[in-house]
Amino acid sequence: MEHDTGPSRIPTDSELTAQQAKWSAYGATRSTVNEQPLDKDELDKLTRFFHATLYLCLGMLYLKENPLLREPLKKEHLKPRLLGHWGSDAGQSFTYIHFSRMVKKYDLDAFVVSGPGHGAPGLISNFYLEGVYSEVYPNKSEDVEGLQRFFKQFSFPGGVGSHMTPETPGSIHEGGELGYSISHAFGAVFDHPKTIALTIVGDGEAETGPLATSWHSNKFLNPITDGAVLPVLHLNGYKINNPTILARIDEEELIKLMEGYGWKPYVVAGSDLQEMHQAMAGTVERCVQEILHYQKEARESGKVFRPKWPMIILRSPKGWTAPRKVEGHYLEGFFRAHQVPLPKVHNDEEQFKMLEKWMRSYEPEKLFNEEGRLIDELKALPPKGIKRMSANPITNGGSIRKPLKLEDFRKWAIKVDKPGTTEAPSMANYADFMVRTLLVKDIMKNNPDSFRLFGPDETESNKLSAVYEVTKKVWMNGYLPEDEDGGNLATQGRVMEMLSEHTCEGWLEGYTLSGRHGLLNSYEPFIHIIDSMVNQHAKWIEKCLEVSWRESVSSLNILLTSTVWRQDHNGFTHQDPGFLDVVANKSPEVVRIYLPPDGNCLLSVMDHCFRSTNYVNTIVADKQLHIQYLNMEDAVAHCTKGMGIWPWASNDQGAEPDLVMAAAGDVVTQEALAATALLRQMLPELKIRFVNVVDLFKLMPNKYHPHGSTAEEYAALFTNNKPVIFNFHSYPWLVHRLTYKREGQHLMHVRGYKEKGNIDTPLELAIRNEADRFSLAIIAIDSLKSVLGNKGAGAREKLVEDRISSMNYAYETGLDPEEFTGWKWPF
Amino acid sequence: MEHDTGPSRIPTDSELTAQQAKWSAYGATRSTVNEQPLDKDELDKLTRFFHATLYLCLGMLYLKENPLLREPLKKEHLKPRLLGHWGSDAGQSFTYIHFSRMVKKYDLDAFVVSGPGHGAPGLISNFYLEGVYSEVYPNKSEDVEGLQRFFKQFSFPGGVGSHMTPETPGSIHEGGELGYSISHAFGAVFDHPKTIALTIVGDGEAETGPLATSWHSNKFLNPITDGAVLPVLHLNGYKINNPTILARIDEEELIKLMEGYGWKPYVVAGSDLQEMHQAMAGTVERCVQEILHYQKEARESGKVFRPKWPMIILRSPKGWTAPRKVEGHYLEGFFRAHQVPLPKVHNDEEQFKMLEKWMRSYEPEKLFNEEGRLIDELKALPPKGIKRMSANPITNGGSIRKPLKLEDFRKWAIKVDKPGTTEAPSMANYADFMVRTLLVKDIMKNNPDSFRLFGPDETESNKLSAVYEVTKKVWMNGYLPEDEDGGNLATQGRVMEMLSEHTCEGWLEGYTLSGRHGLLNSYEPFIHIIDSMVNQHAKWIEKCLEVSWRESVSSLNILLTSTVWRQDHNGFTHQDPGFLDVVANKSPEVVRIYLPPDGNCLLSVMDHCFRSTNYVNTIVADKQLHIQYLNMEDAVAHCTKGMGIWPWASNDQGAEPDLVMAAAGDVVTQEALAATALLRQMLPELKIRFVNVVDLFKLMPNKYHPHGSTAEEYAALFTNNKPVIFNFHSYPWLVHRLTYKREGQHLMHVRGYKEKGNIDTPLELAIRNEADRFSLAIIAIDSLKSVLGNKGAGAREKLVEDRISSMNYAYETGLDPEEFTGWKWPF
């Protein structure tokens, strides 16, 4: 119980209570490991190297000229707008330097993930001093001119952002949106047994939900076949404008929290640089030794266990090494140090002088040689070549990526003699079929260490459990007798399930960005949980396309199943197909949406997605039984075109149609076909053309999307003067949005999901949304008044009746009528 | 270190290791509190009441007739489709019954939050037996017929879903999407000092990110002015198809984890019902006593502190009381018990018999009287009236909601003598102005215990810090000397900041659903983090509109600031205005989007939002300096209409315009005005009409949205035959989507954000997106070719040049040209 938390009892600076001394980075240095591993010479070199990085951080924030202060600082040397963050720079640089020392000493294979994000200068400065930045960007050379360009480009129009953006060598984690550092790090070390991900976690970031649960990733890491993650929880103390929770709870609580998450925490806390160097040097070495020890034990014995992996709690002042106070207000050690520490340098003489004095206090003239390059003595400190963390090839994952080994999926073709009638159960359940064939028989078998399947506890519920025939779910925790009874768990599995969409997605992103392949499966409605992550990943890829040295990585493949139209008891909360709208906002260069109508199309689409790179592929495919339409040859042709006429369902051959019936999506395609059949049976004189769309962006004009179609191509399918009834899987207006520029769009009637669902049988849900066969046929008749005159009245009346009686049947029995569940294409 | 986790070392049932015994609910009952508070009679009654609830759970899953098994069970009594969940029913009912006992004994004011969601029958059965369900739904009466209807409606078309849906009395938390139980519970008890939220947390749910960080909510709860939350972490052991993490880590780890989160955990673990009753009875009583003790201590002393509030770890078998094995496979205690436990009852005689035997084992004939009502002896157990947790008025928050006390916002009017020229800084920064006036001077002052402001560490960054003039940020943790230097922290604050959008949103939802008011402010891009939560809240409200007894609750108000157009150094990751697309997918009855162009409009919009109920209001207003356009009278008129012509910016008076220039959003309105001014200066003969849209849904046809406009109203502004240049705050296609049905829409050119951002000055970012003044003027000229002929060529050339030179200026200097930053309306 803390009784001393009321504001009335806040002590002055000199009166810190014992409690407060533990929250504050000031006061005596504290460290779990008490060793003095550094001799005076090494200590001195580390300090000077550290100072060089901090000097560069300030240069990035403030200077556009006079980069080494070889002349007195003048106002015109300053950038006119000061942008960027200082707050966590020192702590991150400090951590990086110490781990680099270990990389060299133990010949490690490591890279860094910067969770705080807004402290990018702390790491970028290191990458420059290691030489990697100049190797990648020769005009940011290691001399005065290069340094000046390096400074100016930072947070400047046409330059680079203040995060670890895709332009930054060594980065696979931007950190613009917070919360994913640990899941990205784990994703990158799965199946990379030699790699250690040094992962700096911000104490602001640590308050996010995604980060808070991602600590549990350690339960899914196999010490034999995977690498290791060394988290450094950086207790800077403050966020933008608030103290952080983890920096202000009792340290005992914090240690328990980390132990509770299954880690072994080591504390390094203080502000005295010399003492902190000794403490950090001893601590990182202990951590590295423990990691190597556990790996050796597991690998030599062949026995898998879950070690209590080490992690570091680093408590250092926010804005460390800045002036403690400016104009009587706290700077270092307070949230004022978060962003640009001296914001008034342009107009305030005192701040201007303070900046110059501060920068000179790092003694740049002793750190850089005549040419403007770091002096050789310090240049010798970091590791060399690809051992430099910023040059680790996995951080340019495309450079080590090998294409998936895929066999010809055509051998798994579903035999379809007559479209719309094939229904052999194991065939017709096409999610299951896909996984049995493409995933299990080919991918999992042929790519045993470069493909994983991710899902939030839904792989089986999504009917993908056939995958367990070849691999199990990773589980590094305890086992109970019940698990043997169909639990499908193993320490070496390639299916990863945790009830956190955030963690699954983060793992997958880390896994693909570091050069491998994967697939995330999710209930359709809950994919919205990671809207923001997918947005950020798409932005990462978009930017990578502009970065010439970034090699292409595998696409992020998202399979949405358990879709809106068949949620049964799950009801209204589980009905939201709007993820497609979120995806469609991203760059056309990056996003793809596929709605395969049947099993052969799904196989063709998945094969394409698995071969593709640098996309976010969203595939929507319901998990339930479906009628099959196309044989493999037709399916491949159809998917390759992306959309097309289904002649077998059309009766406008050789003539202009009266009506186009179209659909994109599986359940809605069946309803649109059933509507077509009803119309043809009731009004045989009508000429109806049936169009199916697999690749949604085909609807867009080719000017706006690389998959878009020309006006001629579009009109060849949809006409530009006939009514189009379009049954769409998702919210209907997405189709309008994609086609609003098309000639004849005012004749297009789109049906889809509107917020009118509930617990429903599939047909009844469609009826509520007017996306059912009867409604489609009715609207078709209504839109054909000029053609049909009064001829459609009888048919219309019958359709209205059938519609009502279907609904009533569902309300009474809880079932769809058999005409629906057993429906087949009747011609 | 756990060396016994390999699958080869899984023991048989009888060989549970000591370790495993702690993961398993079987074996000896374990409890932190070892007391035997129940006498034989009470034990017996609790058991029978518990059995009655479990009988009802099975009835909901299986039966449509013969509800009390007064005749032998026949196949036709069964529901044809079996939907619903059994897994956590028993544990949830058990918890509820025991806490009800405490409510009665200590005369508590409590309600329940059901986190696992899919175990709704466990609680709904209690609500029925308490009589509340029948009071709310008289045809679900407490007799045989009512019970039959109660059973049939569950998970049935036209009935209620399998979660704690809005139709469920006593529920403010549906639990369809997992992760928000704790944040909702805290939201509901803030400023409700007498209330205790019994919060059952599923161990599946506990793996989600939002839940994992929401445990930290205890750092924001004031024991004097707020109520309490008693979490019961229900270790069922399994999710849908996997063990849960928290049920399989060492119990020592789990206890540390909870202690690390700042709670005091009490364990209750076992499967023997009699022992479990004693353990749970003793434990809940201890917890209640501790809660009351801490509250008394704080309230009597007036000293605020953060107690280590109690919480319960309840480990009971999944599907508790079901058969342990069916057909040789584990059912109880395994994931097979998650959903319908005997899925084959329709066709499998053995399962059919087993079901009847199982249901009869609860002895319904002894629990219900002739009429079909729970026998009086058991009926006497729960508390009475509104003390029943399902009848707590806060769970129908609208019933206790009082409108915010709002003064007339017109008194805070910004004086605007001449539109587009007023720029007094404190006035022009309208986010700051809004908060200084409406929020601080009125709302915070007049509503000291029913309004809170929520934000993820961004209230100050979003320039809303004037609020600290009247209230501070809640902080129940330690204080350091630095905090006195502008930290704005207090134990009794009304601003709630945690770097978790999920937690902030969850708190706000709980706060409004329990009858109060609030506002969430967020950076625009990161609101996508809670897309899914907002979706679910909108669905909750949508459904509430159909539930007659649910009184209206305050709208969920979301203020998006730090918007896409002014992200400075934050760059590409911080540029995403697509939340509006997500919102626009929800029911027109529920969602509203406002884009006030200036300060007086913002005041008017906010006043409206704060008075409104049952909406999700999204308000987009940039935090930076802005030119003011409308005096208060005009602003109110403009906002009331929702969109309108700005005559002072138009020169088509009395004539048909050649062109309509339109805008929705603040930054883009300024650019559209500047484009209008450029055109009028360069081509004075052009007749331009300027239209501003505040209420986005005004664009829709009135048939599709209650705020929509008729064809005539729309055409009166936009014409139906003239080019419209529309500058939009967000992705441009949203405007197309809202207007695709409008006559003349093919003449509409929309500009907005496309994924082309970076680190930019505001104008340069607009230029990249062709949403800048020059681009708008150029496209206007291009679309007026038929009117202008060659007359526009010179102007066009000049505009192209100016556009390029503005971009170059930004690249060179990092600034926008002064003509831009100092721009005013020139006429």
Task: Characterise this structure.
Chains A, B: Belongs to the XFP family. Chains A, B: One of its GO terms (biological process) is carbohydrate metabolic process. Chains A, B: It holds the Pfam family XFP. Chains A, B: Its cofactor is thiamine diphosphate. The structure is a homodimer of 827-residue chains. Chain A folds into three domains: 367 residues, 3-Layer(aba) Sandwich (Rossmann fold); 212 residues, Thiamin diphosphate (ThDP)-binding fold, Pyr/PP domains (Rossmann fold); 178 residues, Rossmann fold. Chain A is elongated. The longest helix of chain A is centred in the middle third of the chain and has 29 residues. Chain A is 37% helix and 12% strand. Chain A is of the alpha/beta class and 827 residues long. At the A-B interface, helix 1, helix 8, helix 10, strand 8 and strand 11 of A face helix 1, helix 8, helix 10, strand 8 and strand 11 of B.
Characteristic key phrases:
homodimer; alpha/beta; Rossmann fold; 3 domains; six-stranded parallel β-sheet; 29 helices; 37% helix; disordered N terminus; aldehyde-lyase activity (chains A, B); thiamine pyrophosphate (chains A, B); Phosphoketolase (chains A, B); lyase (chains A, B)
Report the radius of gyration of chain A as a whole number of Å: 31 Å
Name of the top-level CATH class of the largest domain in chain A: Alpha Beta
In round numbers, the mean pLDDT of chain A is: 93
- Number of discrete helical segments of chain A: 29
Q: Determine the fraction of residues in helical runs of chain A and give it as a percent range.
A: 25-40%
Quaternary class: homodimer
Largest interface: A-B, 158 and 158 residues
Number of domains of chain A: 3
CATH topology of the largest domain in chain A: Rossmann fold
Classification by helices and strands of chain A: alpha/beta
Strand content of chain A: 5-15%
Largest sheet: spatial strand order of chain A: 1-5-6-4-3-2
Could you give a short account of the major beta sheet of chain A?
Answer: 6 strands, mixed
The count of strands of chain A amounts to 21
Q: Give the CATH H-level superfamily of the largest domain in chain A.
A: Thiamin diphosphate (ThDP)-binding fold, Pyr/PP domains
Keywords (chains A, B): Lyase, Thiamine pyrophosphate
Protein name (chains A, B): Phosphoketolase
Domain Xylulose 5-phosphate/Fructose 6-phosphate phosphoketolase N-terminal (chains A, B): 39-399
Cofactor (chains A, B): thiamine diphosphate
